[in-house]
Amino acid sequence: MTTALSRPALRLTVASVNLAAAIDAFLSQPDLASTTRAKYRQTLAVLEDELGDAPVTGAALAGVVEQRWHHASPATWNRHVATVRSFARYCERTRILVIDDALPSPVPSARRVPMEASASASPCVAAHL
Length: 129
Prior knowledge:
The protein is an all-alpha fold. The chain has one domain: DNA polymerase, domain 1. It is 56% helix and 0% strand.
């Protein structure tokens, strides 16, 4: 039986790589925990569905993230951004895809709303406290 830890990572040449193949290679890294792999797969499947065969650029990736998760909580936003940035760094490191620098950014901690502030700002939430 082959497990994720014993399976070698896919190695692809730049000429033969599309987004789906790059995602498969990224997800086949033996050091990814199965739970991490599953979460990464969810985020990257959205990128693959949205971009298809279009050129993969940092702006295109950022656009998909913004379009899909712009209403997400800061923690959710940051999880998806971290996945996309990790994927882009992997592509750069392995040279299987060339992605420019226009990647989405995490939500700065200064912009996050503390739980107490968000609860007091919402009458519905405050009424249940």
